[in-house]
Amino acid sequence: MSTFAALESEVRSYCRGWPVMFDTAVGSRMTDVDGKTYLDFFAGAGALNYGHNNPALKGALIDYLQRDGVTHALDMHTVAKREFLETFSELVLKPRKLDYKVQFPGPTGTTAVEAALKLARKVTGKEAMINFTNAFHGMTLGSLSVTGNSMKRGGAGIPLVHATPMPYDNYFDGQVPDFLWFEKVLEDAGSSLNEPAAVIVETVQGEGGINPARAEWLRGLAELCRRHDILLIVDDVQMGCGRTGPFFSFEIAGIQPDIVCLSKSISGYGSPMGLTLVKPELDVWSPGEHNGTFRGYNPAFVTATAALREYWADERLEKSTLAKGDTVEASLTELVESLPGADLQVKGRGLARGLGFGKAELADRAAAAAFERGLLLETSGPDSEVAKIMPALTISDDELTDGLDIFADAVRSVV
Ligand code: PMP
Prior knowledge:
Blueprint: H1 2-7, H2 14-17, E1 22-26, E2 29-32, E3 37-40, H3 43-46, H4 55-66, H5 79-93, E4 101-103, H6 109-124, E5 128-132, H7 141-145, H8 150-154, E6 163-166, H9 180-187, E7 196-201, E8 204-205, E9 211-212, H10 215-227, E10 231-235, E11 259-262, E12 275-278, H11 298-311, H12 316-338, E13 344-349, E14 352-357, H13 361-372, E15 375-376, E16 378-380, E17 386-389, H14 397-414
Bound molecules: 4'-deoxy-4'-aminopyridoxal-5'-phosphate.
């Protein structure tokens, strides 16, 4: 471990909570150099929805490398990219009657968000953005300007401007009608709100503490945007690719956002890849106006295509994700009911679940206790007050139950 302390920046974080050296990983299990195996309820923060080294994806990747398929290609035409685009169109967009042009903005979530914000500003000629309380959109300056967390914002070192936060669904515990404030300031010429180019929203806030917005709230937001000529950007970086059940997390609301950001699990294999999906009429970029060296990492296209073919040609994964999500919810509810007075809250949707702790520090202690028992999970929320349950969607039922038992035991040991 001294190598990391000596040579790696102080900014490292996950390794501090899990101070072991991981070496191999298969499915929902990671193994350290001492041969100890950990069950994974973290799934690469949502980048490993299909588990570690998924054989269907690995096979396609090995074949591609073996035949000297192009690895790096900026935005040149390649066979791997063509196959990805065609498969994405056939298996994801067309069945959902979605019409988007695909932009490859760079390899991460934050680059997908930056492209979305830039394009929204270019299309509308406006600079103001609306974001939501407890939102998380990434660490580069544009994404950070629409992110809520004050510690992360502080890291910018400059004022973060041009975004106005609005209350996310249930911010006032249902005491204030939805969009009361948002509608009022949009319609009041004296409100001082700059006319927004776009609203950016997560359908379930992952980093913000596993806060799900209701379908009717999302529909209300889309309608408000439509009435006021504001573009709607859904950041599906963490909740997309099936995390909440359907491929896109906004499908439950029946809305069609103007721009959608995807990353994390789109490559399926944990390889860097990002997409910004844009309604065709908004695709007003000039060639090269937005670019980046790593927009064409072809091995990621290969595994992305394999993942779509393996998991999105039918409804099996979606259904099993919803069923597993119900299992998690039932287990967490039972745990909470068995600990009256512990001030715990069950949160989430699909396989994006969380347990909120009234006493914030207990969530980190529960995560540490879980680690001691061989289970990996992280915390989220402004005070790290939510233990986040995000296993791979492909986790087996036995592994899921084992992990939930370990988690319950860990929680009981700290409350
Ligand atoms: N948007 C959302 C909703 C996210 O959860 C994240 C990452 N946690 C990002 C954007 C940023 O992604 P990346 O870390 O790949 O830049």
